[in-house]
Specification:
This protein is α+β, with helices and mostly antiparallel strands. It has helices spanning 13-25, 50-62, 78-85, 90-99, 119-128, 138-144, and strands at 3-10, 30-34, 40-47, 70-72, 111-112, 116-117, 158-161, 171-177, 180-182. It contains six helices and nine strands. The strands form three sheets. It has a four-stranded antiparallel beta sheet with strand order 2-3-1-4. A three-stranded antiparallel beta sheet has the order 7-8-9. Strands 5-6 form a two-stranded antiparallel sheet. The relative contact order is 0.14.
């Protein structure tokens, strides 16, 4: 994950959802999440450098969509912290993150706690919140990774399925260990 822009931290979920929707309606790939502090934070962007992130934020600010903002450094994400310090376990962080979404309803095309998740939205967001980028759909996620035999799966690995027969990937979940995985199964079900 590169440099991103944080544009809000709210005590009320509705405020984060509202801002995320406004940004998304303007073509910004925004997302919100519940921080361990209890606040709902809104972020967007994945820039190669600080200057690009700041430039995008200033353009949106000039349109009156956002007020104050700050640039989130790549080092602040779990993936970078763990890599730098050698302390902690990214796989455990991924599993902890995906567990926070258990009980959220399935929604095709969904990629947030408030509206629901589809399978690839769930995995994309869980990885993103830990500083790892994944493509949006299950097939693209499959192509972005590398094959791991079932017997070699480790917590945090993605597991893929061809649910419509054949060999074409149509579903994804996150392996959490002990032969179990978390996924957003289908309409009418929850994560």
């Amino acid at each position: 994950m590169g440099f991103s822009v944080q544009v809000g931290a709210f005590s009320q979920l509705e405020n984060a959802v509202r801002l995320e929707r406004v940004l998304t309606s303007r073509g910004v790939d925004a997302y919100y999440f519940r921080h361990q502090s209890g606040l709902y934070k809104v972020r967007f962007g994945n820039h190669k450098n600080y200057a690009n992130a700041r430039s995008e934020a200033e353009k949106i600010q000039a349109q009156g969509v956002i007020g104050r903002f700050f640039i989130v450094l790549p080092e602040s994400y779990a993936a970078a912290r763990i890599k730098r310090s050698g302390q902690g376990d990214l796989r455990a962080e991924l599993v902890t993150t995906v567990h926070r979404f258990i009980g959220v309803p399935y929604r095709w095309g969904g990629e947030d706690r408030h509206n629901g998740f589809d399978c690839s939205g769930l995995t994309m967001v869980s990885y993103r919140l830990n500083g790892l980028n994944l493509p949006r759909n299950s097939r693209a996620q499959f192509k972005a990774g590398r094959y791991v035999a079932k017997k070699n799966l480790r917590a945090g690995d993605l597991v893929f399925f061809a649910t419509k027969g054949g060999t074409r990937v149509t579903h994804v979940g996150m392996y959490i260990g002990s032969g179990k995985f978390v996924h957003a199964p289908r309409t009418g079900k929850t994560v």
